[in-house]
Structure formats: C-alpha cells, structure tokens
Design a protein that fits this description.
Blueprint lengths: L8 H12 L8 E5 L7 E5 L2 E5 L5 E4 L6
Antiparallel strand pairs: 1-2, 2-3, 3-4
C-alpha cells in the first residue's frame, strides 16, 4: 500500500523538514495542486521548489534561467 499525503501544510512541512534536515514551519511553504497528476502537489519553500508525489516522495524541481 502506498502512502498518499493530503494537502495539509503541517504534514508536508514535517516531510520537508526531514528532507532538508532543518525545521520548516507550515507558514513558510506554499502548496498548490499539480493538475497533471492526481494526488501530487507543488511545494514552494524559500527559493526552493519541490514536487510531492502521491507515494510521498519529494522531488526537487530545478529552475531554469530564461534568456
């Protein structure tokens, strides 16, 4: 059985805290739904961007500079 996280900032902040090895408060993150995948969310924290998959995996999203 796979774990699916709801868009609860508290849960996502705890997961992000584990991933970054630093304390992340729910007020520090922005969570939006990923319209291309049910149960997936985009997570913004400071200048970093992540994608939370339905299986609970955090994937770092790299930003590209535009010309």
């Amino acid at each position: 059985m796979e774990i699916v996280y709801a868009a609860e900032k508290d849960s996502i902040a705890n997961l992000l805290s584990e991933h970054t090895k630093s304390r992340v408060n729910p007020e520090q993150i922005v969570v939006t739904e990923d319209p291309s995948e049910t149960g997936s969310f985009y997570v913004g924290f400071d200048l970093e961007r992540f994608k939370l998959t339905p299986s609970g995996e955090l994937i770092e999203q790299t930003l590209a500079l535009l010309d």
